[in-house]
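writing this on my phone so excuse typos. first protein, seq and then structure
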Amino acid sequence: MDNKLVMPSRGVVAPNYFLMTPENFVANGLPHFAKTVARPLATPRDTAAKFGQYMLEFEAGGGSVQPQGAGFESFLYQLDGSVSVTLEGTVRTLQPGDYCYLPLGVTFSIHASDSDPAKTLWTKRRYEAVEGIPAPSVIFGRTSEAVEIVPPPPGQYTYCELLPASNPSFDFAMNVLTAQPGGSIGMIEIHHQEHGLLMLNGRGIYYLAADFHEVSKGDYIYMAPYCPQTFYGIGDEATSYLLYKDVNRDGF
């Protein structure tokens, strides 16, 4: 009899971070969606998170049956397949790597095509308005067209800003970070922002609060404020991930 224990995943929950692998993702539903599996990644339920991220997996023809996003700002990032996003009477198509930002007060409908399934990451949070600073506008974009930024040493990576983090109207940023094999953040970061991170490609080692975890495509990490963190790229191909963080607000 073979009594060897086969570990089903690398998922772990710690006091100030958690790592979820695709094997940990649990199928859920959300109100007013049809033919859609919603997999909550981070939400404020019993966590420090002040935002929500959901993996939406649409069957062919699946999507929302009522407008979504009321009371929140939203960011949609297309992972697989294509979806149509309807807002303010306009229909736009998102292909893999496309994204859109929808400010507070703008609701949307989202649908996969009738012929193919699709997968979308939906980020939502309550907007933190600041007196004297105007609210952001709708943004549609494509990751492949975003400007690649090279940070100063000791960083050994590049990143693309999908939202203009220097614009004080925005209270969160979405970046795609890319590291070649052997590349790294170059320092252990400790800061008051929180993160939601989805691995898009490749492999790496994430240092989280004195723990080391191997991560790969499809993994998700939540990092609470002040969680010590850094990343190292490993393997034989570039590693990239989509990173959420709150910006431009003082924490109160």
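second protein below, same order as before
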Amino acid sequence: MGQAWWRPYLYSTLRQVLGARDKFVFDCYHIMSYMNEAVDDVRKKGHRAYRATGDQTLADSRFLWLYAQEGLPRKHHERFAQLRALNLKTGRAWAIKESLREFWQQPTREAALAHWKPWYRWATHSRLPPVIKTAKNIHRQPHNVRTFCTHRITNAVAEGLNSRIQTIKNAACGFRRFENFETTIFFHCGGLQLYPLTHAIPG
């Protein structure tokens, strides 16, 4: 979604690709990344305010708020439950973020819209500026958020491949020629069978 969020890129694609309006899908991973950033912005502001009074309630809690509810490691359950019971602004931002995750589980575009409308009202009336800003940014192109319910695709594979390529690049500390970089990518990511035919494949 990152580049697609940039209006010139979106409008150019809509002009050049036949039927693009119904094919363009804003990736749920990137939308949730923006929501996580909003939650973290709320946490940082809250932490600064608490710390100014000597209160360390939100200290070292950054990653707790970025987990999905079911993904939180068991060792953090007790502390996170205590934080949520405090009715913090960060807790409200987290709850709004978690509710948005349910959007991607809706079976149809109609169900997604029914979930979206109350969620958007909740987010934009939250009195949490980072959350309000993010919700309005998402709402700029609601049609291409809901197209996920039709196509059910993400760019997770592309993101994973790009991550591997960046790891290769960093491990090599750069390449003198692009051709060498390209060859190394194919070597590591091309699914090559590297065992000699005269040797048994382990396992």
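The CA atoms of residues 1 and 31 lie 7 Å apart. thats all i got for now
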